[in-house]
C-alpha cells in the first residue's frame, strides 16, 4: 500500500509541475517529509528524481536551440564544485546523517520561502528585466553567473529546491535580453547536471531510497505529460498563487520552527 501511495504522490506532483512549471523539488521534498522520511532521504531521493525527470526536457530544449550553453557552462563552473564541496562537508563534518538533518531542514525552509517569493513576484521581475539595459552589467555578468552557480550548488545540495524557479529568476535578472524559451531551456539544461551531481553525492552518503524513487517516477512521468496537456484549461495564475502561499507557510515552518 505504501508503494501505491508514493506512486500517487508522484502523480500529484507531476500533474502540478506539468500545469504550472513549478519545480518538483519545492513540492516533493516537503511531501516526503510529511510521509515521515528523514530529511536526508527526502532530499537525496528528490535530487535523483529531479535529475532524471528534467533530462528529457533538457534534450527537447537543446533540439529546439533554446539552450545557451555558454551560460550553462558558467553556472556549472560555480555549481558543480560547490555541490561536491557541500557533499564532502556533510560527509566529513558530521558523524551520522541524523546530525545534519536539522541543517537540511533549515535550508529547505529558506529555499521554499525564496521560491514562493519568486513565484509571487515573477511578473514584476519580468517587467524589470524588460526595461533593463542588457549591456549595463555586461563586464560583471560572467562572474555574477558563476557566483549564482555557487549559491545554487550549495543550497540545491542541501535542500533539493531552487534549480528551477530560483534558477530561472537568476537568469531573467542577469540576462534580460534572453527570450523566455532561452531562460527555461538554459535553466533546465543546467539543472540536470546539478541535480544529478548532488543526487549522486547523496547516493554516496546513503541518502537515496531507490524503491521510493522508482515509485515516484512511475507516477510522475505520465502525469507531467497529462498536466502539460491540461495547462491551457486550468486557471494557472490562481493555482500558482495558492501554491506560493503553501510554500511560504511550509518554508516558515522548516526555517524557523
Give the topology, please.
Elements: H1 2-20, H2 25-34, H3 39-63, H4 69-93, H5 101-120, H6 122-131, H7 141-159, H8 165-174, H9 180-204, H10 210-230, H11 236-256
Short description:
The chain is an all-alpha fold.
Low-confidence stretches: none
Number of domains: 1
Give the CA-CA distance, first to last residue.
31 Å
Strand content: under 5%
Number of helices: 11
Global mean pLDDT: 87
* Strand and helix order: HHHHHHHHHHH
Compute the gyration radius: what is it? 17 Å
- The geometry reads as globular
**How does the major sheet shape up?**
none
Q: Can you count the beta strands? A: 0
What is the helix fraction of residues, given as a range?
A: over 70%
Work out the oligomeric state of the chains in this entry: single chain
SS-derived structural category: mainly alpha
